[in-house]
Amino acid sequence: MFAIYKKELRSYFINPIGYVYVGVFLALAALLCCYTTIISGSYDTSAYFMYMMFAFVILIPILTMRLFAEERKLRTEQLLLTAPVTLTGMVLGKFFAALTLFASTLLVSCINFIPIYAVAAAERGNQDYDFYHIGPVTGELVGCLVSLLLIGAAFIAIGTFISALTENQLAAAVITIAVIAGMVGIGVLNNYIDVYWLRVVLSWVSVYSRFGNFANGLFDFAAILYYASLSFVFLFLTVRVYEKRRWG
């Protein structure tokens, strides 16, 4: 698994896709942070993180579209299937490579939060960065970062599964965009539905609706379990796809 992980992580920077992803992610994060907090003079980052979650609809497919589709297109899939590694190890190696690049870029984007502490301290009339003044801000930031990391992992697992179904990278990207957009959009659509039981069902499956507690600095363990379960299910399905392909 580790050999596949290193190969996959290195491949992101052999071709331009890794640089494009990192550049677009950091530029978009900086612009969103600037317009949702700094320019408005607010230290409330809930809008920033919400917009970043919507940005994942485009960003995540850039990471995942080539994971398995490229292997099929280049006819190197058989080398993977005959390599001395389990199918689970193969899938996890590719998944963790994409997750590492995603998480690293997300952490680098945290440099955007430095001015937010200055805004928070200034609004409270104190320039000292003690915990009393930055504690609430830090709690919200940490909660939202954890939620974005979990949401990103779930979306990467979904993209990994879709990439395993086709050899066309563009098709993998478009289908992944459609699926992720649907999962995020359900939460928005839910605000316009009057049928109570349908609202409850859509709220339960919505990625967006489970984000609210994290935005308030609260750790929602039910949401953590939900995001982790999404990742597990789609990674399991990817392994099943390759089990069928190996013996089919």
Task: Characterize the structure shown.
With 248 residues, the chain is mostly helical. It has one domain (2-247). It is 76% helix and 0% strand. The protein has helices at 2-11, 17-38, 46-64, 69-73, 77-81, 87-108, 114-123, 131-163, 169-189, 196-205, 212-215, 221-247. The two termini are 23 Å apart.
Q: Which key features would you list for this structure?
A:
248 residues; mainly alpha; 12 helices; 76% helix; globular
List the helices and strands and how they pair.
Layout (H helix, E strand, L loop, with lengths): L1 H10 L5 H22 L7 H19 L4 H5 L3 H5 L5 H22 L5 H10 L7 H33 L5 H21 L6 H10 L6 H4 L5 H27 L1
What would a concise description of this structure say?
The protein has helices at 2-11, 17-38, 46-64, 69-73, 77-81, 87-108, 114-123, 131-163, 169-189, 196-205, 212-215, 221-247. The chain is an all-alpha fold.
Strand/helix succession: HHHHHHHHHHHH
Strand proportion, as a percent range, falls in under 5%
Biggest sheet, open or closed, and with what strands and sense? none
Arithmetic mean pLDDT:
82
Shape: globular
**Classification by helices and strands:** mainly alpha
- Distinct helical segment count: 12
Helix content: over 70%
Report the radius of gyration as a whole number of Å.
20 Å
For the secondary structure, the number of strands is: 0
Return the domain count: 1
Distance between the termini: 23 Å
Q: Which consecutive residue ranges, at least 5 long each, have pLDDT under 50?
A: 127-135
